[in-house]
Amino acid sequence: MSEDLKKLFEERLGRYHAAISLEPHDRIPIATGSNYFAEVYSGDTKQETIDDPEKWLQAEIKFCQDFPEVDVLRNNRIYGPLYDALDVKTYRLPGRDLDPNTQFQFVEQDYMKEDEYDDLINDPPGFMIDIWLPRILGELGNRGTGRSYVAMLKAGFAQMMMGGVMRNRGMVLEQQCGMPQPMAGFFLAPFDALADAMRGMTGAFLDMFRQPDKVLAACDVLVQEMAHTALTLADPLKRYPIFVPTHKAIFMSPEQFDTFYWPSFKKVMEILIESGHSIRAYLEGDWGPHWHHLREMPKGRVLCDIDSQGDIFKAKKDLEGYQCVAGGVQDSMLILGTTDQVRVHVRELCERAGKGGGYIISAGCNFPYDTKPENFRAMIDAVMEYGWHDKTIKAKPKSAPPSSKAEALKPRRVLTPWEVKKGELGQITGDENLIKKNWEQLEAMAHTFMWQWTL
Amino acid sequence: MGDLAQALANLEEKKVYELIDQKIAEGVNPLDIIKECNDGMIRVGEQFSEGKYFISQLIFSAEILKQVMKKLEPLLAGIQTGGPAGGKVVIGTVKGDIHDIGKNIVITLLKGSGFDVIDLGVDVPPEKFVQTVKESGAKVLGLSALLNFTYPMMKEVVEAVKAAGLGDQVKIIVGGTPVNEQVREYAGADYYAKDAVAGVNMCKEIYS
Question: Which of A205, B21, B47, B79 could form an S-S bond across to B56 if both were Cys, CB 3.0 to 4.6 Å?
Fold first, then answer.
């Protein structure tokens, strides 16, 4: 990696870190979480983005070259071959179930039934492998068949291939383009894990009225699973925040939110922050009635993405001095507006929301696929003109904050704990720890693999 | 407002079912029971507009109403309902988008207000909207979407409706997460509904 690119990488990451931690920096970072626009800007179809990692990487490199002012660029979420190997039911994918140029879409259903809470609460891994996963992974539903064993084997390989694609892409972008990432790893708020792919929104809301104690107990169990999943997937160097997209909070009253959503969500975030990580929270929809809670979290550790339906100026005012906010550029403006409109719009954002820092320019949690390239350019030019705080400041990337073993984090519940395996082996003739360490690592990886399908 | 309507408006599920069972036992005309439930649902919608209820409460109210209708269905067999009092509304999620939660909430509220709703489901192509509007004679067409790549599709539907000569017959309302006044203008639709209750009120206005 050349010195120039290393310097550029550190300049971008330093700016991003400083904005998140509410420290001085030179200008407003251009740092969306999900950049769909980058994926299609060079002409790739949406199918190519998920099925052809090389094309996808080339598209991102071109984006970095054409828009060097951008500060971070994210990893892709979906690797088609893995979804094909397992026959994942929770997504419809371009080129397979949808037109090659239509965006992938989540299919919500009550894959978990209303009388299955005790199964989840009493034995989370058993519930996953015996009840829930066979319903959302079609191939696992063919239980006991040779085809299903091979499918799981293929999925394991596909997961490793995806890991390789992501690692390679991160390295290429860092070393060839000096480009950091906005986030690494993910989790869901426990209520969302329950209400997205398990009970579905209608199911979870009816349960909230009809069996509130079960919902709360399930959220408690999910705190541990989400925290373990997030920690396994997180950036080991702790340079990048862990991503959490929120989904159902905006449909809840403040009382429901305070009871069913926030306490378990807060617990997961506390565990991750105590472990030395920061968080990037996509507050989907209008979080206006709820976002004041983010003031309860350690300062500058939860970057809040404000969606197009939320009021960015109110968010900035409510969270100023507590957390950094990102957003403000209206999705519809990028897709339908003119360059002049974008310029006026972004100028206002820089001057009002950007004042005093703690602000990152982005659209409603992402830059949309259908952003007009000239509007994207106009947005960047406006930031480069109106988005400066102090050109003399050169913020350096922050080193990982001090971390400790979070007390609230319990040992992970797994299907085959080491003690069980040890009992089966009877006698260990050599160094037990060598065997145990690898056993537990693989067990942890397998459980993260299972829980990732809640997203 | 009667006890039943009040219980429904308060989302007191068990009480609603008890009152329904009681009224059925007393031989109350099921159409009157439905009318009282509609009053309760209208109150639910009002509380949503006032910011007292959120989507979760709308969903729960719809579920209670669904259970009530299950109880009443056997009694309605053979009774001439005369059809819904309100007009016809055609609604669907536009082509490319498969989301239906928002659309379904609107449908529940429309039915609660007495409209005859023709639900075309999700991923609906323009020609299907045009054909249904033509055949039904509906004065309102509702287009729903969750994803922001659907703007051109909304425009296509509006243009197809106009090209079919139905522009004078039907008013088009667009709604959903990514929609705003700018999108309405781009698509050439008549109205933009900010939320489900606003959409229902527009339907009432169009039919008044």
Answer: A205
